[in-house]
Known about the structure:
There is one protein chain. The chain is mainly α. The chain has 2 domains: 2-49, no CATH class; 58-111, no CATH class. 58% of the residues lie in helices and 7% in strands. It has 5 helices and 2 strands. The mean pLDDT is 82.
Amino acid sequence: MVDAAAHAVQMKGHWRDVYERLKPRLGRPKALVAVARKLLIAVWHVLTGATADRFAADEQVACSFFALAYKLQVRNLPDGMGALQFTRYHLDRLGIGQELTHFAGAARRISCRRRGWLANV
Length: 121
């Protein structure tokens, strides 16, 4: 978890802000462990509550689900869903990303409206 925290604090965003706030008071190693603990608590809430992390960007979550769909291979997705329908289903399940019309996936910008993104699944 400390490795995950080290990666998280290198990126811009919430976890870096937490780390920068704690570092002067605790020092670098203890601040990193504190971020790891907070990250673990966030993971626990996400997994037990089946909710999205409140600090996650909707577009990044959509990108991750889209990549997962291709990693699972599209033919193995439930109910004959395509990658976009799989992504939309899981975003709806988490209650996020309703306003997304585009996201970057597989090194290209994917138009959700043009490819049936808004179709009822």
